[in-house]
């Protein structure tokens, strides 16, 4: 066997300590938000399917408010999709910017794996949908619906299952979803935009320019940025381009690298402030008004017989898993990157299956793709819910099969025998670590000797005659 080349590297290897800490904090917040999202989705399904409550769900969802003179007389469901999701994509924009300047994506070699996996994980589901609808003579409008990954919902599934997924796989899933969000925004901007109002678009661009200059001039004050952000959002909405584009654009403009003396960059600070609003309010409320589809035996049967809905389900369950796994394998195969010794390819397939949970962005694209066809929109939402549920169950079974191995890896990553707050696995190559450990072992040995001598003395005392 030939010796490994010095250019060989490990795919999905152990993270650096700063990146590990960032991923742990980010995923902790995403998991909480995912649980709230799950609760909101269940509440929507119950509200829409209980006969005594169904009418009230429709009434509340279609209740209009907002200034009509500004083109913003929208239903609550519309406000949730166009307004609240802009907050979600604002956070996604900050996450992407951070990955580009301080995370894994700043290194082209490291970025190749999640980027190629994300692209394949969007292309293959679209291809699956297209093939199913060409064969079944269905509508091609929904090709983009199964391309999205919902990171919050995926991590909520992990939280419910209690799976101790290693940090490298968690980081891969997080980075994959961030790149996925970017491409989803590009799909929305390119394929679901029509009748552009160039005056409003020009105003939005000017507003974004002002926002950029304020951030670069280090101007502070929420009372400046919040009104400006609302103006940019309103102009973007009236331009005909989906208003969530404004959110991701502003997120990408924030500075996410730390300068000397800074504990947090402005982007990190704002993300820390806004993420609870996004995860705890904006996204769950969107789910509450979007996931409320009427589910019956006949409707579930239609999901598996109608080409549009069958294409969505197969795209999420099969296309996502095959696309991400295939993209990861091809990247490792042709870039001389070998899989980490601690992991196996079935682990990658399990995470790829987990990415088939589309939900939030898939529901949004469904509304855009089938706009004007209420029946197909509702059936598409049912397909998204069913496909996401199947992907969650499948990935859960696969992850549970390796849970003992994951738990051992996680415990090794978290082990801190010298109690210095830094996991030992990051210190084993440092002489001072070995010196500390030698001192700890010497103290333990001295304590054992003292206890042994005390026990021997007590035994001698018991043998002396009274």
Which features does this protein show?
466 residues, mainly alpha, Na+/H+ antiporter like fold, 2 domains, two-stranded antiparallel ribbon, 17 helices
Mind explaining what this structure looks like?
There is one protein chain. The protein has 17 helices and four strands. It is mainly alpha-helical and 466 residues long. The protein folds into two domains: 10-193 and 242-414, Na+/H+ antiporter like domain (Na+/H+ antiporter like fold, Up-down Bundle); 424-461. A two-stranded parallel sheet has the order 1-4. It has a two-stranded antiparallel sheet with strand order 2-3. Helix 7 (198-216) packs parallel to helix 9 and helix 11 crosses helix 15 (374-401). It starts with 8 loop residues before the first strand and ends with a helix. The relative contact order is 0.15.
Q: What is this structure, in a nutshell?
A:
This protein is mostly helical and 466 residues long. 72% of the residues lie in helices and 2% in strands. The chain has two domains: 357 residues, Na+/H+ antiporter like domain (Na+/H+ antiporter like fold); 38 residues.
């Amino acid at each position: 066997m030939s010796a490994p080349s010095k250019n060989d590297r490990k795919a999905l290897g152990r993270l650096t300590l700063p990146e590990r800490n960032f991923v742990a904090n980010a995923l902790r917040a995403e998991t909480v938000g995912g649980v709230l999202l799950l609760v909101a989705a269940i509440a929507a399904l119950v509200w829409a399917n209980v006969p005594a409550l169904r009418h009230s769900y429709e009434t509340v969802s279609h209740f209009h408010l907002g200034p009509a003179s500004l083109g913003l007389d929208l239903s609550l469901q519309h406000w949730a999709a166009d307004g609240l999701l802009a907050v979600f994509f604002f956070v996604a924009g900050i996450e992407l910017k951070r990955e580009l300047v301080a995370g894994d994506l700043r290194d082209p070699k490291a970025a190749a794996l999640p980027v190629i996996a994300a692209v394949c994980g969007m292309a293959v589901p679209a291809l699956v949908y297209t093939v199913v609808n060409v064969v079944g003579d269905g509508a091609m409008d929904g090709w983009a619906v199964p391309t999205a990954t919902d990171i919050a919902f995926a991590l909520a599934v992990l939280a419910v299952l209690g799976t101790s997924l290693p940090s490298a796989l968690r980081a891969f899933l997080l980075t994959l979803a961030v790149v996925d969000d970017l491409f989803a925004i590009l799909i929305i901007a390119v394929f679901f935009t029509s009748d552009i109002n160039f005056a409003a678009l020009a105003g939005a661009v000017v507003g974004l320019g002002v926002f950029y200059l304020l951030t670069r001039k280090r101007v502070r004050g929420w009372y400046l940025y919040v009104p400006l952000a609302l103006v940019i959002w309103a102009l973007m909405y009236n331009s005909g381009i989906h208003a969530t584009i404004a959110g991701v654009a502003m997120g990408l403009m924030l500075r996410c690298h730390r300068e000397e003396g800074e504990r947090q960059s402005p982007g990190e600070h704002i993300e820390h402030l806004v993420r609870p609003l996004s995860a705890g309010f904006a996204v769950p409320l969107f789910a509450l008004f979007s996931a409320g589809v009427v589910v019956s035996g006949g409707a579930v049967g239609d999901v598996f017989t109608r080409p549009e809905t069958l294409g969505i389900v197969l795209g999420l369950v099969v296309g996502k898993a095959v696309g991400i796994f295939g993209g990861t394998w091809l990247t490792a195969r042709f870039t001389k990157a070998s899989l980490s010794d601690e992991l196996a390819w079935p682990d990658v397939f399990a995470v790829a299956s987990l990415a088939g949970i589309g939900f939030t962005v898939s529901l949004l694209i469904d509304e855009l793709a089938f706009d004007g066809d209420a029946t197909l929109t509702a059936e598409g939402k049912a397909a998204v819910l069913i496909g996401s549920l199947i992907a969650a169950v499948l990935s859960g079974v696969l992850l549970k099969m390796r849970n003992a191995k994951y738990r051992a890896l996680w415990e090794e990553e978290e082990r801190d025998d010298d109690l210095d707050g830094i996991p030992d696995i990051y210190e084993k190559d440092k002489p001072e670590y070995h010196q500390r450990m030698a001192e700890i072992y010497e103290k333990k040995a001295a304590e054992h000797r003292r206890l042994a001598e005390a026990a021997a003395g007590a035994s001698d005392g018991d043998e002396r005659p009274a």
